[in-house]
Structure formats: structure tokens, C-alpha cells
Amino acid sequence: MRERRRRTRKKCRLCASKTKYIDYKNTSMLRDFITEKGKIIPKRITGNCAKHQRLVKEAIQRARHVALLPYTKE
After folding, report:
1. Least packed by Cβ within 10 Å: which of 21, 22, 25, 29?
2. Which domains does the chain have, with CATH numbers?
3. Tens-place pLDDT, residues 11-69
């Protein structure tokens, strides 16, 4: 029988830096959570906790509404 590998849990980097609020105007940080096509990367890939993933989602949506981030890439 094959042995299963234990996967180490990803740590939330926003919890590590003790971030309480994510500013929608900080597009350089928000681009880390968006794919090349403009989709929001899920928390199972980024390693964010649920609280910070909600804050990231909200900040990205606000930045898109103000046209700081694109909805899609052409």
C-alpha cells in the first residue's frame, strides 16, 4: 500500500503580519490574490483564513468598482 503524504497547512500571511484592514487602494498587494485572467484566487490556494479572505474579496471588488483593478484581462 502506498503511504499518504501529510500536507502542511498553509499559514495566513495576513494573520502573521497582524493585518486588520485591507485597503482597496493598495493594488500591488491585491494583485497577489488575483490570477492573470483577473479571477480571485481561492483561500485553499492562497492559505488565507476565512476572515482575511472575505476582506480580500471585498477590497478587490471595491478596487474593481473604482477601476483600479480590471474585471478581466483581455
Report:
1. 21
2. 13-65 (4.10.640.10)
3. 899 999 999 999 999 999 999 999 999 999 999 999 999 999 999 999 999 999 999 99
Residue with cell 497547512: 9
Cell of 30: 491585491
Residue 30, phi then psi, degrees to nearest 5: -70, -30
25-31 — which CB contacts under 8 Å span 24+ positions? 25/63, 25/68, 26/59, 27/63, 27/68, 27/69, 30/56, 30/59, 30/60, 30/63, 30/69, 31/69
Q: For the whole model, what pTM was predicted?
A: 0.84
